[in-house]
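Q: Could you fold this chain for me?
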Amino acid sequence: MEYASRLCRKSPVSEIAEILGHSASSIREWDKGILENTLQAPDLDNLRVLLVDEKSVRKGHKYVTVVMDGDSREVIYMVEGAKKETLMGFYDRLKPAQKDKVQAVGLDRGGAYLSATREALPKADIVFDKFHLIQNLNAAMDEVRREEYREALRKKHPSASLIKGQRYNLLRLPENRTAAQSLRLGELLNANETLSKAHLLSEQLRILWTYGDRGDAEQFLQNWIKMVEESALKPLTRYAKGLWRHREGILNYVRHNITSGPLEAMNGTIERVIRRGCGVQDIRYLYLKVRQESLQSGQR
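A: Sure. Below is the predicted structure, expressed as structure tokens.
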């Protein structure tokens, strides 16, 4: 059983079952039993920073809620579901003294996790995740691009051919573009004033996360929102209003400097674990496997 469990770290369950002459279900049960008995329990007494996100693990939008210790990068909780009560299941495990030690929680602006965190950890700072905020900005940018493409087609403007196929090029960071991509983007921005304006605004917003002083960051955000409002670009204006409503959680980044980056990196590990296990048969087993990987990563 221990040998099979060690093999499960690197090889698909189906291959191990064939080599050892046992069923895949037996291999999974052996591995799960070994992990239950050998993995160290999460240290809940010294939690300072938590990272929370959801992850799709099955077709049909079947999600799990994942909680990571932001300092040790250990996955400390994973259960099926992505609702308020799902995360509350974790918070209910914490004693009052453990809750008081949590200084910050990094998460998306979605209502379920936010509501649970504010209720369970009223003393902790909420830090809205930079990467989710950029994803939301990219969605607004793409809405501007689609509107401009439809308008160019309607007017039979030559810029329509330049807009088509430029979705990802508009959203790429400058350092990630090839010379050819940069040239093509420059042609588009020269031909379309609206997209040029939107692109400039999106590039400027990234400066927000470089500030070391909260007051300076807030002033920058206020000025950026004013520029967006003056641009009269509706998708970006809606986005900017949302930023101002949630400015407290956005500006908390200056103090804590945390993002969901480590948790996003763990998503790749989760996918590999699922492939090796030939799908998700048992969420508890998936959690144990992912926790095993996060502990090993922390030791390297």
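A (continued): The beta strands are 49-58, 62-69, 75-80, 104-107, 125-128.
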